[in-house]
Amino acid sequence: MHEMSIAISIVEAVETKAREEGAARVSGVDLLVGKLAGIEPESLKFCFSAAAKGTLAEEALLAIEEPEGTGECGECGMTFPVNFYYAECPGCRSLRIKIISGEEFLIQSITIEEEGE
Ligand SMILES: [Zn+2]
């Protein structure tokens, strides 16, 4: 279950950032996880809440945006939606496809709460 190790690295990155900002806690984390990133969003959410226990991100809400996959044909240059790695060009049936989006995985932003008085 590699979502767990991903969740742990997200929590670490978020906590580091939150400490730099002097946050009391993290209330939200926005992630970008492409459809072709090989990460199961529901599983990641579950792992995140487990990994965040006892950290500043314990109560953070995880929001996941999932961009669709797009491929570009290496033969005819056509771009088209891709759901799998082994895509075929709908124009010329070539298998020389370059994935141009959908593999993204990044933390877009985090929402922190400052220390109260
Ligand atoms: Zn093509």
List the helices and strands and how they pair.
Blueprint: H1 2-20, E1 23-33, H2 41-51, E2 61-65, E3 69-73, E4 79-82, E5 97-101, E6 105-114
Parallel strand pairs: 1-2
Antiparallel strand pairs: 1-6, 3-4, 3-5
Helix pairs in contact: 1-2
The protein binds zinc ion.
Residues 73, 75-76, 78, 89, 91-92, 94 line the site of zinc ion.
Description:
This protein has 117 residues and is of the alpha+beta class. It has two domains: 1-67 and 103-117, hypothetical protein PF0899 fold (2-Layer Sandwich), CATH 3.30.2320.50; 68-101. Helix content is 26%, strand content 34%. It contains two helices and six strands. The protein has helices at 2-20, 41-51; strands at residues 23-33, 61-65, 69-73, 79-82, 97-101, 105-114. The strands form two sheets. Strands 2-1-6 form a three-stranded mixed beta sheet. Strands 4-3-5 form a three-stranded antiparallel beta sheet, with no helix packed on it. Helix 2 (41-51) links the parallel strand 1 (23-33) and strand 2 (61-65). Helix 1 (2-20) crosses helix 2. It is elongated. It starts with a helix and ends with a strand. The model has no long low-confidence stretch (mean pLDDT 93). The structure holds zinc ion. Zinc ion (ZN) is lined by residues 73, 75-76, 78, 89, 91-92, 94.
